[in-house]
Design brief:
By secondary structure, this protein is mainly alpha-helical. Helices cover about 55% and strands about 0% of the residues.
Length: about 130
Amino acid sequence: MSRKRNAILEEFIEIYKSEPCIWRLKDKEYHDRNKRAAAYEKLIIKLRELEPNATKEDVVKKINALRSNVRREKRKVEESTKSDASGDEIYKPSLWYYDMFEFLGDQDIPRTSQSNIDEADQTEVFFRRNR
């Protein structure tokens, strides 16, 4: 069953990859509800091969779980390279689908927050609070 499950998950990931309207925030179709709904429908159909009653919520949970696992592994790799580890000591991801998520590239990098208040307004707010 494990081989069949992995093969289905591999196809699931490939469908996900082929639908940037779901994962690429800057894609022009990211805000197209119909396009996104159609993409999710493909993923629901594929996930139903493993979970017969799968819904969109189940697809979202599955994607989040897979991406979380990849992020965790990526963090371990980054930490091992930062610690000046020799080539043999650099962490090697054990997750079988780790490389399949390379297409996400920088999609998981947190954006720096920016204030929508200009500097003069921020100064005024600071002084009002500290009176």
